Structures
1.
Amino acid sequence: MTAEAPARPRLPEIPGPWQTAVRAWRVLRRMSTALVLLFTLAAASILATFVPQRPLVPTTVEEWLAGQAGPGAVVSEAFDWLGLFDVFGSVWFGVLVALLFTSLTGCLIPRWRGFLRTLRKPPPAGRNLERLTHSVELRTTLGSEQALAAAAPALRGFRRRMVAPSDTASGRPQLAAERGRAREAGSLVFHSAFYLLLLGALIGKAFGFEGQINIPEGSAFADTRIAYDLARPGRWFGLDDHRGFVVRLDDFDVRYYANQVPRDFVSRVTVLEDGREVRRGVTRVNHPLRHDGMKLYQVRFGMAPHIRVRAGDTVLFDEAVMLADAGGGVWTGAAKVSLGSRTGETRGPQIALDLVFLPDAAVNDDGVPYSRSPEPRNPRLIAELYVGDDLGLDRPAPAARFDRAAGQVLGPPAILPPGGQAAMAGGTLALEFAELRTWSGFQVSHAPGRLLLLAAAILLLGGLLPSLYSARRRVWLEARPDGDRTTVVLAGVALQRKPAFVDEFARISAAVRTALEDPA
Amino acid sequence: MNPQLAETSNTLWNVAFLLYIVAMVCYFFRLAFTKVGVDGLPVSSRAGTRVGLVGTGLALGGVAVHAVSVVQRGMASGRVPWANMFEYSSLMALVAVAVGLVVVQRRFGYGHLMGFVLFVAVIAMTSALLLYAEPGPVVPALQSYWIKIHTSAAMASSSIFMVGFVATALFLVKDTAERRVAGSGASFGGGTVGAAEAGADTLAEGYEADSGQFEEIASATAQRDVLSPVLFPVVPFLVVGAFTLAVWQLPVATLIAASAAALLGAATWYAVPLLPPAARLDNLAYRVIAFAFPIWTFAVMAGAIWAEEAWGRYWGWDPKETGSFFTWVLYASYLHARSTHGWRGRRAAWIGVIGFVALMVTYYAVNLWVVGLHSYAGV
């Protein structure tokens, strides 16, 4: 029996590249494909919420990779290989977005075409009106044409067209009416706005800039690439695109609520161009300062005690040291006092300062110093000097990471109020806490494409509302002579939100009935 | 700060919480006093009708008292009363109950569903209680008029999604029952069986057209019989119990939460024949979610504008931003699935359920367990 079956080729036919492309395009255009792509997008975002992301929390990612946190070093290694530590910057996420947009395009082109075609078409004539989901027969003394003309105003909000008897299947005159094109139009606008959204986002990515910088009161920074502690320029934001203006922090102010939560922090700044003051202003949280297409945001703040270290008459160090919040109202930091020198006659060791600052110092029952509040009511600086031949101060690393083990602590730590002085290392070094200052941390941003994004957002919402709430309805009136009277068949169909059409149709038929009885 | 006002606000809040609980119990009693009539319509006994009315009155009273409490709290702290998780959760409950009363009970006429809506609201109130924070001023990041726009829109849409979730979940139960009844041949008419497959809009239509006449006449017990009376309480008991134990490690709290879930499961099982047909529940869920979706979209957009103003970038894939994004994507998928052949009905409903879970994760889990820029607000 099997022998009689027609011989089949062992392998299925191999589709050519064109066929494959066509097939792939067809698959991409399907709504189920779009849905699967959307799920993948959602799944990727969920992963990115719970797996630490390198652009946001790089140190946590390092901890995961080192096996100190998370699911262990091996799993983290696999995560890293899959790009899960930077989902939104990964290649596969880019591919996913590209696929989504391809699918969207494939879906939108025929829909736009169809929509534009219907725009030009008047409401079509109806057939088999009695068989439609909603129909009712009305009688009137008016003639056919007059009846239809009289009923027309009752279909308020509908696009209407008189259909001549020759154009209808029944051979009787009709009034065809239609409404709810806003649904498709809204849906098309909504979906098309995503291209604008993408464009705006890409422009921002390519030509934008984000930089962060911390400076103590009284200092200034220039808008140049090297000035920033952290710079994230877009691919096409070049060195020359920096404005070069100078921002000076004149004053920083922080106020607290009674429960020690910050109430407000304000930086008063002066913007200088070519040495001239061009703008004075304040920047606060939620109130960035705009200048020359750049925005200056208040993002962080901290304590910056001004410290002077002298060896005899030589001033070794004279700077405000920016301290970091160590939690519990305690601030810590370090400074490179002297890089030392291993050659020549001025041979000297490296000197580093380790600082702890308590804004409202007190000593608890165990004799441990702590800070009662974040406000500098009783400020005390605890300073330790480290001396060694190689503390690693000449490395391009933050001062706080100097090699404490390679050095020697010079005497007991000095505890100083503002203006206080201490002699260290048997009087060879003098340490002075000259003044308590603060530092302020700014984000400087240039975000082109924002207006495009705003426009996209407005189009998205403006399209979304009618696409969800508008509904297409078609209504026909057909006049049939019935002796000396006329029977008018009123029929309608709802293409969406059908339950709501029940009431609508009742309202329409009541209005038509009134119009036919009482032709105004 | 006005401690006097804050205190009255808290007292009224407790009263509202109590009213919601009692109203919920009344609504469930109403279900217990309701039978499926010969025409398939649920018929409440006199006691059932009365207790239902009492429930409605209590729920309305709860909303009124709760609203006063919220306003007082806002006055006490001199800012909008939705600046921390306690206030936000509490307002979610308030809006959910209000939407339930206005849309589910009044507009759609599904008073039988209100017990379930109130149950979800009571959970939100409980979560608020667990996250209680004293009224007070807010950190500089929240001092912006955008808190009035972004946060209120997010809160309002979340509560409407909550009502949508109740409808979606009940749809899944009802649809299962209808299918099984149809499969076992126990039904006489079975007009709406599998309705969701064929498009809820189409089939709900005939139903609405003839003034609320059920096309389906299924015996009262048929839909109950096809569902397991054991699994309905036991599964929620185990799931909620495991979750509560994992989060709080408190045996007593676990037992209470798990028992409440078990009771809800049992009530759902009992209520199945009394629920509106699956196609109508599906329609209700869709309408509610389609109402909340643009508000959520707006909330995300407003959030982006605020982020631009506060943090210097409109979108940074911060955990909260990412969370609101995947919630948005999932609800968008729900809306798409509902108009896609082969997805509408149960599949779409499951997407709606996942969307709601995503919303809750975005709200609770991201705020409480993930470190991000939204980690503040007096949690």
2.
Amino acid sequence: MDFFEPTYIAFFSRWLHVLSGVMWIGLLWYFNFVQIPSMPNIPDKEKPAISKVIAPTALFWFRWAALATIITGLSTAHLNGYLVNALTLGIIDASQKDTAIGIGMWLGIIMAYNVWMIIWPNQKIALGIISANDDQKPIAARKAMLFSRTNTALSIPMLYAMVSAQNLY
Amino acid sequence: MKNPLESLSKTVLIGILLTIVMIVLLNLIY
């Protein structure tokens, strides 16, 4: 096997995409399925363990995994020759496969935008990483939570689109 | 009315419904 042939390089990019995607969506689901629902059950004096230690670390890997997933996803599409056809939702070549992967890519891009432009700036306020008034913190926390939930909802069709494009169409 | 995204189960339901809409559209178009 030649590790420098285009087929292997495209595969390697896809492998990196899956690795970073698992970390991103895994942490997204950790926040939504574990951390947020558990917070009301944690005594107030123990809450800083989450808000000061676990959440900032999880958010670090979460936001950089999101960026890595987008970069490796775009490189995978380019190396396999379907980047433009997918981003134009298969309209150019009337391909169901390109429409499916295109929907998945756009959902992923919207989700990564939400992470970097809405969730992370609001989490910085909510967790006290940047200084803000005390009355701003619950507003920022609610906004971050709702956009995190939006991404959780979008992750379901996004993964269907991604997996079906590769295995069904 | 409360935002449905405040509920985890409703969030998952919205995700499943969006998936069904996407599948139906993909089958209608092609």
